[in-house]
Amino acid sequence: MPHMIDAVFDIQADSLPAAYRASLWQELTRHLPQLSQHTSVGVLPLRTSGIEQEIQLPKRSKLVLRIPPTLGNEVTPLVDKCLNIDGYALQVGAMKLREIQPSVTIHAHLVASADEEIDFVRELEAQLAQMKISCKWICGRHGTLTDGGHVIHGYSLVIHDLKPEDSLQLQYQGLGSDRHLGCGVFVPYKVITGLE
Predict the structure, then answer these.
(1) Are the C-beta atoms of residues 190 and 105 closer than 8 Å to each other?
(2) Dihedral through CA 143, CA 146, CA 147, CA 153, nearest 10?
(3) Are both 68 and 124 inside the same structural domain?
């Protein structure tokens, strides 16, 4: 099981375009071209508010890159850089490295998959079986992302009743494709009530 860590950056921006993810990845790899050589690298979705063309960032927002520990020192050049996200400025501040902790319940904002829920469930069950992970899960809403010319479909997902080693495996490996756009990247989730 490959080990992963989180590189956590302070960031400042007045606002960003709602479809920021592809542009963010383009800027990250412009400053850190080595990121594109690692398919395991993930970018956690930014915490934002707003659902139209423009979104707002809370003051304590963080940019989090999920990386192999070997890249820990290689991402430091991102500190103090100003990223151009489709004409919006995103200022990067201080960085710290953070170990990933096991959690009995984890959540991914979007797991890339087939458009239909029945196909998503089939893919999910196959991936969990291949990883030999026994757990319970709750499929959330269907969502889409645009990456240049094509649309990525998927569903939000909460996985719970996890053993510590299985929780770490899922957080290290993720599920599905497009981790660089924040898809299939899991973080601890505190509650499971009120989900659809």
Answers:
(1) yes
(2) 30
(3) no
Name the domain count of the chain: 2
**Domain end call among 99, 122, 138:** 99
- When pLDDT is cut at 50, 70 and 90, the band that residue 195 belongs to is very low
Q: Where are the alpha helices (DSSP H) in the chain?
A: 21-31, 117-130, 164-173
Q: Cα(27)–Cα(21) distance, rounded to whole angstroms?
A: 10
Distance CA 55, CA 47 (A): 10
In a domain, 34, yes or no: yes
Positive or negative, the Cα torsion across 30, 11, 17, 44? Answer: positive
Give the residue, 57 or 90, on which the prediction is more confident: 90
- List all residues 6 or more positions away from 62 whose beta carbon is below 8 Å from its beta carbon: 8, 9, 10, 11, 47
Phi then psi dihedrals of residue 52, to 5 deg: -90, -140
For range 78-105, the mean pLDDT? 96
Confidence of residue 194 (pLDDT cuts 50, 70, 90): very low
- Altogether, the residues listed in the chain come to a count of 196
- pLDDT tens-place string over residues 154-187: 999 999 999 999 999 999 999 999 999 999 999 9
